[in-house]
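Action item from last week, closing it out:
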Amino acid sequence: MDDGPWELKVIPDHFWIPTSVLESLENGTPSITKPGTAKSLRSQYHLWTQRTLRAVSMLKLFTFRGLPWFPSTGGQEKVELTAAEVESLRSELADIEERAAQLRAQLENVDEILRSACLSGYLYIRTRWTALPGEPPPIDDSDVDDWLPRFVVLHGECLYFYLLCTDLSPQDSTLLSDIVEVEQLPSFKREDDEMRYAFYILTRHGLRYECSSSSKIQVDSWLSALHSDCKLESDKSTPNGSIEL
């Protein structure tokens, strides 16, 4: 049968059953008197049908979609491809190799970060600018939920902000020498009642990074590492962990 380019082409002679066997099955009588009875012929016929369907299913499973299969003179199947199909396969293989190289580079980058960074991890970040002298105070937008997850890396003399830990280049960065304040912020609850612990990083340019996490241990680790590397002193905190304003 040949239902189209996506189906297998089956040679009917390969699945031929003797006419006498079929007639005996239809009449309900055996075609021979030796051990072959109608019951045994029926069981053999059903067994042959199951094996044939299983073989066809397996062939369809291992057939490449879009590749036309044709029977060869040696009784084996062969594939005939046009020049356009060959070029398409080559292009797909090139894309796969390029993707594999990119994933390998990302994996090596993550491994290097984890090995050499002083501290790294995901934090929720939002940025604010402090008012310059003579400018009106900024609008109070503390209720705006614009926290975005970022992968933060403290490495060497710089603080890096990645969109994802697998990114090869950071989305933003700042020198530790430009950081003038690192202090704790009051904890707060989100709409889903999740408690967030927060702190801020202020640069000499007026850029303020507000960072938060659901883990107080993680926030304390960042505060300790930044105070140490930036050589800053922490302000006195209240007993509940909120800073005095």
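Closing note: Strands lie at 69-71, 77-79, 119-129, 148-155, 158-162, 172-175, 179-189, 195-203, 207-213.
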